[in-house]
Write a structure and sequence with these properties.
Shape: globular
Order of helices and strands: HHHHHHHHHHHHHHHHHHH
Oligomer: single chain
Helix content: over 70%
Structural class: mainly alpha
Number of strands: 0
Radius of gyration: 23 Å
Length: 516
Amino acid sequence: MSRQSFVYGALILLAASFINRIIGFIYQMILIRLIKPEGIGLFNMVFPVYVLVLVLATMGIPVAIAKLVAEEMAKNNIRGANRIFKICLSILIVSSTSFTILLVVASPLLLKYVFPNPKVYYLFLCLVPAVIVVSICSAFRGYFQGLQQMAPTAITQTLEQLVRVIAGLTIAYLLLPRGVEYAAIGVSLGVVIGEFTGCLTMIYLYFSRRQRVPKGTNWMPEPFIHSCSRIFSLGIPITLSRFVSTLLMSADAILIPRRLQEAGFSLNEATSIYGQLAGIAETLLFTPTMITIALATALVPAISDALALQNRHLVLTRTSKALRITIGAGLPCVVAFILLPRELCGVLFGYADAGIILGSLAFGGPFLYFQQTTTGILQGMGEAVKPFKNLVIASVFKILGLYYLTAVPSLGILGSALALNVGYLVMALLNYLDLRMLIGYRINLSHDIIKPGLAAIGMAVSVWQIKLLLLPYSALLTLVIALTTGCLVYLILLFLLGGIHRKDFRHIKDLISQRF
């Protein structure tokens, strides 16, 4: 099985993310009209808690698999790579089963002390089986990512999304007559069915595409304790980082509705407003993360590989390339979110009022995208403790902002958006400072900031003029023409300014032709 360059691997994940994002958008558009923002709010209250348990159950091991398998393969040690995978898979099976049992036992206490709305109880229980399924599937994904084979991850993610959408919408529609809380249960069941389908597919791909050990090779395995030490020395810091991240996401889901009630909103109003934030505004804001997540996933083994070969120049080159793509792809999205928020939320989801939340969140978008890519780079360097430390610091600002600003009646949910933006900014800045210290990375002011910034300004002017001209006639027409024209203007200006070159397109073309 041949290995892929990190750019090609990122392109595969990006293509899958793009397809999944389209499917997800259609799903979200239908779902929010079906179960309303209140139903979306109910689901988003329990989903972060489920993710929190999933983080504890997986213990950062999938990322450890990707990194350690990449290191062993860089040394051409296939037996060592396979052994690492099998140890990690066994740990994940035991861990996920234990946490699933614990979750079922503790669910009444969560309902009493954690969840802000009692309607979420059965919705939460329906998500519990997914902990085991996702944990097992993540081990196989980490293995293929360590081999720098991103296609299995892309295939299963797309299949999961398709099954999740079909099953979730069907069950939600059938349960809707019983009430919105029952319809939200359909969303949970869709998640479980989708993940189970993806897991079965990943297991099949593993047995058909795994690395075979050449016959007659002599090999002395490292001590089991040493293998576990390598796994957990990387996995534990990643777990701490993701635990804090998901704990804060859970805190958002619990804190924001409660503080909105302090600001004067009823329980149902607070749930609905939170649904607009989590189900509409953040759905749009996180659209460009299909690029940053693909980059971060591909960068972990790519950076590990380069470090194993002691090629620091390659580490710096891959870092610069990934962050240039992150900045260049994120800016036009931010322009659209700032200038067309009501049109995006109204046309796509039927709730134009959520546009004010999206417009406020958009200012933190560049920092969100930057922090995701830089976190992947630092994890690939084996420095998972640093983004964890940065996350803790950023979270202090975020939680304080959520607590105090959301309860201000004149701010409400806009106070939440401001607090989220501050967290993104602090995290991005701290990650950047760590990269400067570790590998000497510095943002190229001209190429990375000024050129895409000027192109974004040109895009903003064209989008604004089209909005003034067409909005009185049709929001849909305004959205289609403004986004199409704006993106073309951005790309043309970026090309004319030298932000992108012909050789960039030739490089991508060569990568694709080499694989097909």
